Structure formats: C-alpha cells, structure tokens
Amino acid sequence: MLRESMHSDGKQVEARGVTQGFDRDPDIPHAAGLIEFAEAVVLRDAARTETARKTLRAALGDAGFVDAAAVVAAFHGFVRIADAIGIPYTTAARGSDAPELREQAGINEFYRVRTEVRGEA
Amino acid sequence: MSATSFAGSNLPVRSDLVDAHERAWAAIAAPGTWLPGAKRVAVAAEIRRARDCAHCARIKAALSPNGVAGAHDSLGTLGAAQIELIHRVVGDPGRLSEKWSQSVLALGLSEGEYVEIVGLVAMVMMLDTCLRALGVPERALPAPQNGEPMRRRPAGAKKKAAWLPLVEPEDATEADGPLYPNPKAGYIYRGLSLVPQSLRDYWALANCHYMPGEFVYQFDRSIRAIRRPQVEIIAARVSAMHQCVY
Predict the structure, then answer these.
(1) What is the DSSP code string of B133-159?
(2) Cβ partners under 8 Å of residue B58, min gap 6
(3) Closest chain B residue to A91 measured between Cα atoms?
(4) Contact predicate B2/B15, CB 8 Å
(5) B223/chain A closest Cα distance in angstroms
(6) ipTM value of the model?
(7) CB within 10 Å: which end of chain A, N or C, has fewer?
(8) How far apart, in whole angstroms, are the C-alpha atoms of residue B104 and residue B31?
(9) Smallest Cα distance from A100 to chain B, Å
(10) Chain B residue closest in CA terms to A10
(11) Cβ-based contacts under 8 A for chains A and B
C-alpha cells in the first residue's frame, strides 16, 4: 500500500525502511514525526508518546493529528485478526504474493514467514 | 464533517469516529454469537489486563515464544483457553502459529468462540489505542446487556485458506446477513467471517479509523486529513513492529 501510494505521487519508496529505518528521507511530509508517533504508541511509551503527540499535532493540525492516531489504532486491530486467524501471508499484496517485495522489505525475516517457509521454530 | 470530542477531552474529533466508538462499545456489551454480553465485557477487561501481564512480557522477550514457563496474570474470570488466546493475541500477535491456535482450541474453545474473541481483541485494542494515542483518558468498560447469544455457524464456512474456517464470498448465504462489500473482498476482510456479526462490528469500526474498502485501492486520493502516503507509512511501520505481513 505504501509503495502503491508513493507510485501514484510519482515517487519511489525504500521498502526496507519500514522494518529497518530509512537511509534517506522517504519524501513524505512529516514522515519522521509520523513514524516516531507510531513507534511510541506501539511501544506504549507514555513519555515518548506525549512528546511525539505535541510535535505531530503542531505539524498536522488537529484534524490531521486525529487521523494519524486513528490509523495507528486501526493497525492494532488488523494485525491481530490477520495473525490470530492465520490469514495466508501470500495474499497480502492485493490478494496475491509479492515475494520480491517481501525480500526487499525484510518481511521474510518475520516469524510467520520463517516458520512456515523455512520451518524454523 | 462536524467535529465533536471524546469524553474527558476537548480535542476536536470528526463525529463519525466518535460515533463509531459509541457503537463499538455498545456492540461489545451486547450478546454476541457465541458469548453473552457479560462474557464479552469480561473478555474486554482481560484484554486490558493482558497489556501488563509479566508472563506475556517474558514471552515477548524470549527468542522463541514457545515453551516459556509460567502463567498469565489474569483477572480469573475466564477459562484457560480464553486467557491464553487473549493474552497471546494482545501481547505477541506476530509470533502465533497454526499449531498454537490448535492447542488453544484443544483446551476447550469452539472455533466460533475463538473467532469472536479475536474480533473483540481487535476492537478493544483499536478503541483503547486510539484514545491513548490522542491523549484521551481510557473509557470505562460498559455494563453488559442481557440476552442470549444466537449460536449460529454459517453453513458455508470452510477451513481452507486460513487456520480457522472462513466464509468465502461465493459461499455466503442470505442467512449470514451482509458480509462483504464486494465479491473480491481481501482475505483480511474475510478473517472474522465465521462469526458474521463480529465481522460487521469490526469493520464498522475499522473503516472509520482507516478507510472504507472502496477507497483502499484509490491510491491517488485520501478521504482523511492527511495524505495517502502519510496514512500508509504509519500503517506499514505499525504492521512491521508487530511482525505482521499485512
């Protein structure tokens, strides 16, 4: 989804950046603030979240900040359905597999792929 | 879209999001398909408890999630299978396996109960995370509503693509009620389809946080106050931190 949304803006994105950090600016407005906010919330770090919240709200305004928070929250739900029901990961890319993207993004190192493809426990 | 706010906050919030939270909590408190309202609210309480479970923290920190000795810090109101399901899905969802899901069912949980609880975990995590992200106080759990679960399994449910049975769009019947916005609904959309009411409750909430399905593949537009790549960089980072392929 990130790659496709960047393509529609005529831009490329470094896929591995979402798992290992971006080597260069991903050319998305306020990307650093969005990522910092998302990470702080996932990690349940109250102090870090408070700081990130103030920064992001100042940058995006109230409506943008609310939507950023709502998206962070949404993916606390999606991931749990996918992983608890065992939705096949090979359908993640618009219903089909994207092995080259999995490799580029570092997703092949995720537990689910390691255990199901390589048989690691 | 008009703005209102969540209780305990003066931050302006679009009204559809506030309304979606209201409807979601009402649905959580109501009788489900397999669980009565009181049990569903107890599940919500256990979800909150699981976030601070020391055993879950040890599992999360372990190189392998399997074989970590100990017991979950639970409220003691639910059975062993329900507690294991809730805590692992809350605490370390990226390291679940089909073998683990089968072990939970073998503890005495039906497939319908499993899926209904997963739907509740997904909803409560979304609801609570949204308020925490916004800096709004956590909402008190609702009072459970009386009534009996309907205990109905869709006739077309089959275990095929996923670890739990799904109702594929072509197998859905009128008795299931509305399930899919279109016949090509993605697998993530089908995840809760063994319990159609859970699917509907979940997506009514999720669509207000992310976006309704008809906008998902319209990459050149955004229906939110941030641009689509901004939405997706958040989504990708949160998913990656959970080790989720989706």
Answers:
(1) HHTPPPPPPPPPPP--------TT-B-
(2) B68, B70
(3) B187
(4) yes
(5) 10
(6) 0.96
(7) C
(8) 23
(9) 13
(10) B220
(11) 261
